[in-house]
Amino acid sequence: VVAFGESPTFPAFKNCVYEVTDYSRFDLPAECNSVVFCHDVAKDRVRHLQALENLCDSLARSYTPVHQVHLSYFSSSYICAGGKGTIREADGLRPHNLRELAICHAEQMLSAWGCMTRGSIVANVFRHGELYGEKEDWPTPAGYVNEALALARRGENVRFSGNLNQLRTLTHVKDLVAAAIAVMDQEFVSGTFNLPGYKTSAYRCLAA
Questions:
Q1: Element (H, E) at 172
Q2: CB of 114 within 8 A of CB of 63?
């Protein structure tokens, strides 16, 4: 497995080689059959989509339907139109802001590249909720819950927006990493995987 990203400090998955790139060129070993796209859409939506297109274009020139490559992409459960119930892989997409619109665009782009290459590029999409928690040798994920936890541990006041019953869909970072590794280890498993975890209020999360 080869992961491509811009941050020199990004930690690699187990048995994964991490390559720093500006997304204009990619060094792909001949035996590579699994790639991870590590660009953060929150940093730059336009660059996110262009970087993903550059990677897909490079993969399309290196692989064939006989010699496939699995491309893992980290999406968001918030783009799903499942409402308050359980999110299903077949649910439609309903973005609420420009960041979610870019993620929807990325998912559709991956689907299109799969069709254009006749299956040379096989996308593994992991839709997760707001990441929280910690994992050894990994940077703590950004987000309201982790920031609030850090304040609480320091004994500082935590501000809650709105009422205390607002729900967030949370995914522990260890669950996301474990799911990604499990899929990468299975050569014939691919598709869209929903890993939203559970819905709870930030207040209950901190109280626990």
A1: strand 167-172
A2: no
State how far the Cα of 113 lies from the Cα of 88, in Å rounded to an integer: 23
CB 71 within 8 A of CB 58: no
d(CA 106, CA 152): 36
What percentage of the chain carries pLDDT values higher than 70? Answer: 76
- Long-range contacts, 49-58 (Cβ 8 Å, 24+): 49/102, 49/105, 49/106, 49/109, 50/23, 51/23, 52/106, 52/109, 52/110, 53/109, 54/23, 54/24, 55/4, 55/23, 55/26, 56/109, 56/110, 56/113, 56/121, 58/25, 58/26, 58/28
Q: Which amino acid is at 126?
A: F
What's the half-sphere exposure (Cβ side, CA atoms, 13 Å) at 76?
A: 23
Assess whether pLDDT exceeds 70 at residue 5.
Answer: yes
Q: Which two tokens stand for residue 34?
A: 């699994």
Longest alpha-carbon distance in the chain: 57
Q: How far apart are CA 18 and CA 12, in angstroms?
A: 6
The predicted structure's pLDDT at residue 205: 60
